[in-house]
Amino acid sequence: MQVKSISRIAIAVALLIVVSVVVPPIPLFLLPVPVTLQTAMVLLIGLLLSPNEAGFAVLLYLILGTLGLPVFAGGTGGIAIVLGPTGGFLLAMPIAALATAIMQRYWNTDNKFYKAAIAGIVATVIIHVLGIAVWTISLNVSLWSVIVSDAVFLPGDILKLIIVLLIWSRLARLSLFKYN
Q: Which residues span the membrane (predicted)?
């Protein structure tokens, strides 16, 4: 692994921790899952890094939090968080980052912004599907009630995706993010 690759991974993990810990989670109504910037950072990592780097960076973040380091939203950590209602969203993040990076790198199209938008939408769907599944199982509630509750997050996720795409369009030009 090259120094440039290790640097990108370290920066990605650090930024994911910063948006998770420094930016407070926003609770919605009585839902057990808050609004965070973690998903936005995962999308950005997937768009900017190579598939191996993106997947490894977010997996490393997940491992650090699962081991008890306070790196998850609001400075929490531990296996209880991963097994709780928010666990599916966390477990989906490395998969979403990897999927985004794979689509970003290998999907052939002339419209790169369009490609990045589709990759971000697919990643968001991955995060929500796994998040809904674990949320339903962990609280032993009906799937339909969780799907309806999860729909509250979609407008914010659309806004986060738009902001991520605008940031990506600027950062992708930097030599740090040229991984070919």
A: 5-23, 29-49, 56-73, 79-101, 113-137, 143-168
